[in-house]
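Long-time lurker. I teach an intro course on protein structure, and each term I like to show students one example going from raw sequence to a predicted 3D structure in token notation. This year I'd like something fresh instead of my usual example. Would anyone be willing to generate the tokens for the chain below so I can use it in lecture? Attribution to the forum is fine with me.
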Amino acid sequence: MNYSENQKAVIFHAPDENLLVAASAGSGKTTVLIEHVYQQLLAGQDIDRFLISTFTDAAASEMKSRLEKRIRQGIGETSAKADKKHLQAQLLSLNSAAIGTLDAFSLKIIERYYAAIGLDPRYRILADQTEKDLLIQEVIDNTFNSSYKDSRFLELLANFSSASRDQDLKKLVIRLNSMAEARAEADEWLDSLGRHYRLGNSLTAGDFWQRLLAPQLSDKVVEAYYQIVSAKEKIEKLQDYGSYEPYLTDVAAMMQGLINSFKSNDWQQIRNYYDQHPWPKSARKKGNTPGEAEYFKQFVDKQIKAARDSYRSIATDFLLLNEKQWLLISQNADKIVTELVELTKLFRKHFAAKKRDLSLLDFSDGEQFAYQILKVPSIREEVQSSYHEVLVDEYQDINDLQESILTSVANSHNMFMVGDLKQSIYGFRQADPKKFTEKYRAYGRHQGGRLIELADNYRSEKNVTQFSNSVFDQLMDQKLGGIDYKGDVQLKAANKDYPADLKKVAEISIVIDDGQQTEADFGKTDAELELIAAKIQDLVGHEQLFDRDSKSMRPVQFKDITILGRSHAWENELQAVFAKHNIPVNVAAGNFLQEFEISVILSFLKIIDNPHQDIPLAAVLRSPIYGLDENKLAEIRTVDLKHDYFTAVKTYAETGADADLKDLLVNFLQQLNRYREIAADNRIVDLIWQIYDDTNWPEYVSAMVGGTQRLANLHALYEYAQQLSDNRFVGLFSFIRYVEQLMNATEDFSQAPADMGEQAVSVMTIHAAKGLEFPIVFLLNLDKKIDARDTQGVMVADFDEGVGIDLVDPVSRVKIPTLQKMVVAEKIKEKNWAEEMRLLYVALTRAEQRLYLIGASGSQTDLALSWETPVSKDPAVLAVQDRLRATSYQQWIGMALAKTGRIDLTDLVKQADQSDLVFSIKLVDYSQIIDMAAQETENDTAAVTASDIKSDPEINLSRAEKILDYRYPFQTESNLAAYHNVSELKRVFEDPDALLLPEMDDQPAAEITELPKPDFAQSSQGTHISSTDKGTATHLILEKIDWHKELTTDYLTNLIHQTISDSDLAQAIELDKLEWLIHSELGRQIQAHVDSLRREETFAMLLPAEKLYQGISSGDQVLVHGIIDGYFIDGDDVILFDYKTDRLTKNYMADLSARYAGQLNIYATALASMYPGKKVADRVIAGLEGEKLIHL
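-- Reply from a regular --
Happy to contribute to a lecture. Here you go:
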């Protein structure tokens, strides 16, 4: 093999100096590492003198296999007998060599030196994380129970939870313990968590202000400042908005003054400046130049409002309290954090004692004990002398404790570390890329070791590497990502085999939904999957790619294609769509215990263990195994309304009126008793197999969409039960509890592999794809929001900056986010965004020849706005504020390409002249994909007529046609619900003036589901606010307005912040829209009749079905319920009004009328029945977005 100069430098490196190899994606790092070890063996070293640490057991096995292959090859290549003999001896020693995970190495240290720390050698490895989790739960329950008599514990509990609901606090303790397990000095780290709360007598004198709070405040205002500068630049092009230039100039100067005030290091001076400089009154446009108003609304006004909201949030989040108040809050919070740390230490003490009592040792114990052993000088010297070189693969993913072990084994100059900071993606497993960063910077300056870059990429075609470079050149730097993506760090296409004329493909496809989405059961993900399916069908058999093995062109096959996603959430939908298009697929999916086929069996096991559980019992009877519908289940319940459902089942089996149902339940109870006998003998494996055999459940699910995978999952459950039969989880209850713990695991409990054959599209997460490569890569859900949950909740925790908490006043129960929490949350966000950036890098660099990125957006305007970078003035890299403002990979990619001029934001599909990179952007209309999917379905389900059937005397075609053509006479009614809320009805009104729905022959039944907690009620810190969240929050404010009061801007601002706890969402509510409504004709009428005003009025009424649906004459009635936004009484008249926050459209008033008139008709009908002596004189739609009143 022809090695590059840098590869040769790595291969022939002598272990007399520490070496860090920064190996980029596709650079052949494993090959180089293997060759390095081989060359040392060839020079006379022994394999058992090397410690080679790998990230996983699989990587260790591959390392041994490849090293064995290289040694055998070397034996064949060398003619010297001494060398041949030495290499043969290394083969014999290879299996016992120290090549494996650091966990495995730690256990070897313990096995040999356990006496040094007084450890009992009789222990069992607690290798199963779920078993450990159950033990943790048992210990923490006992720890809490013993702490309730402590007043300090009760104070801690009151801050985070309550005596009746202490689960939240337990989760915090478990989380801190998990983080502490990855630290070399766990107790010291725990003690440091509250250091930022100890501020002394000044808020602005120490490290907390200088390094954390002041820079974050400044960054926030700088971002707002540049938003104003960008808006001012756009204003200069508009004739009607000239008056905005001095207004925006004043605003920019005001913000610059606030930025300068931070340099004073005087909290009161900063507050005074802000109080003296409120946001100035907005300017007004003059003129009606065509198109300017719409441009201003879409591109300028949104930036001004975002800057204003950001400026105002400085006050609401930070400057609301004076320095003395913040110092007191910090002092009180410090006491809470201290007690939380002490509670965590107490739990850790109890947990350690419990494990010793049970003679258990988990992996964190193994590493911690090994580190304690290696701290003994004589042992450390002995271990160090045993190894010629310490090699670490995937060095970017080690943690603090593992680093301490490795440096204890090394002799300060013989460490050989290989990794890629750009691929550090395991922060959720406590990996700390800071270790790599520190050495990368130090060794780059020749301090403590040597740095060698391996940037040559032998995997990808040049256009793919260039696309990745174009993105990450703007995204990644030391501030956000840990490394400057410049020069030698950039990928360099080094594979010379690819033909020069190979088609270059880097395609970004965005599904555009302008808000007119009408298909409730066809969402954004469905549209993206349909688009991918169509592209795959266009590729396979029609396009050519380069076969790297045969070094020739061939047609694209299914096996060449891999689909990557951030999570497993979309995989069931993918299997359904691909099955429809006859695309074979292999899914490396997530937690199989949460799949439908498994959940049915688990419900069965639960009622075998205890049949007096209503929900699992109903689930089993309702499942396809017994097939009872809701009417049958209700009929069973009628025979016994007092006791649990199982009692009702037994009663019906004895006295039920329906003979068939009675027989089914008798058989069910007999089966259940037989299963309970098997379970009593702890024969869980036999029990599961007996259920499979009796119910034919495996055969049933194999016929469902994704049947092969489902069948594999059922077999995996059986095999897993068999594996567990050897440990203490032998009883059915213990097995169920164990499986439930697995189902709730945060890490994937992967689905069983379902082999669809080599000719299938592969589907996996980005994490699962690390280290792999594929000819064609699709990255799905490009627009998926980056997970910000680590920055939310009652506590945030960071390895470097400690914890941030909300402080709850013990008397008023008012919750105050501390300054420390806001600062730590921002630091966590920076780290999380950096890791997501690296995850995107991993995804893009998996592709060898073609890259397809699939995302979605609202309108093209929304997409263009999301790709703007107003703060980014440095041509070298995007500003940190712009990168942190992004909420998806889609935004990052668009920002990077737009800033360098590769995308024209005024014409997104227009491609700039760029000889170094070929890529395209395709905007696909949502409705176009719906039509495409509908056409595909129509083609797939084309009818087969009698003339298509060959003549067969055994077939009675006339009777067959009669059966097949039979139409149920009440088909229309069967597709309709007997219970509706008005919101379900309003989407399908045909005539705005009639209380009728269109014909429902081909319409699906309205699906009634339990509504989840609205997102606006949850925290959305750091995430984009959707129009739905914003509209819901706006409705809540309108509901809370006290029309008796003077409705000033200050009143509305205070109401918003008191009502909406999420600061981002509160800032998104548009005050000017609320003020318009208050001062409108409707607002004046409401104020004049405030005593008769009613809001959020609920109602329920029965309406004849024929008044709601056309073509219905059965005489049945439909129960309709709803909530009326508001109405008031004016003499004999009732005035009905309804708020709408729908986005602005070309025919705004007509669209609102068409969409909601039928809904208001139902409200009017309800009011007429409530007030029989009065008339509903007016029905008013208040369109807030367009500031229009529509009288129906």
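Some talking points for your students: The CA atoms of residues 165 and 659 lie 47 Å apart. The radius of gyration is 34 Å.
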